[in-house]
């Protein structure tokens, strides 16, 4: 009764696919963040665009941080587990929302609260 892959309900192929998605998104977001920072440097701050830039930069920074954390979780064995009930998050959900940290039940409970 030994199960070598007990730590993850996801197959290697599924993990590989999710890892690729995360990396692509991370690269995209990092590039976007670089662009925004360059724009911020050029901006005079005289009009309202600077504030919008700061908001966009903050959002992009957060996305980059969340994506790299997800990559770290994927490298370990905690990825794909619900943060609340420790239950497995289905691959179909992760494929749509690679950053999902809760299962659908917990998400609904959270939203209802
Ligand atoms: Zn859950």
Automatic annotation (TrEMBL):
Keyword Coiled coil appears in the UniProt entry: yes
Pfam families: zf-dskA_traR (PF01258)
Zn finger residue spans: dksA C4-type: 82-106
Residues forming coiled coils: 12-77
Domain called Zinc finger DksA/TraR C4-type: residue spans: 78-111
Alphabetical keyword list: Coiled coil, Metal-binding, Zinc, Zinc-finger
Keyword Metal-binding attached: yes
Entry-linked PROSITE patterns: ZF_DKSA_2
Name of the protein in question: TraR/DksA family transcriptional regulator
Organism: Streptosporangium vulgare
